[in-house]
Amino acid sequence: MEELNSRFSDGTVELLVLSYALEPKDNFKSFKTDAVYKLAEKFYPEDFNEQEIYYLRSQLKYYQIDVIHHESFQNMSTISELYRGLDEINKSQHYHLIDRLIHFIFTLLVSTATTEQTFSAMKHVKTVFRNKMKEEFLADSMMIYIERELVEDIDSDLIIDEFYSTKHRRVQL
Hints:
Layout: H1 2-7, H2 10-19, H3 25-28, H4 33-43, H5 50-66, H6 79-88, H7 91-94, H8 96-129, H9 135-146, H10 156-172
């Protein structure tokens, strides 16, 4: 727990703990409606409007009665199994807000990996260029390095030629 707290901020740890409330392990032992509600309200306010947040609370009560006690869900241990199970018996349509939250939890792994890749790229760019440049140029260089698939089709020679011609126009003025 100490290592977890030292590597992640309090907000990140809280996000992970609240996400665990949907875990179906041990017959939904960790399921808490208040934690799931708080997860949506606090960490995904842009993805749920006020009406959906209000409706989520009642949906969670029905979910607790319907899904948690449903025999198909008794031996599940992962959120991915839960997601597939909800989809197989068409419960994901009835509990669409909970289904949306599960989608967001799935994206946490991708988001974390993307963040790690970004920091790795930043470390590489900073090591190569060190203190030879100003902060703004370093930020621009990192953005191009991190989002390199977006700039693959850009011809560097055309940009250089454009700047070169602009320089000549300035000299003439």
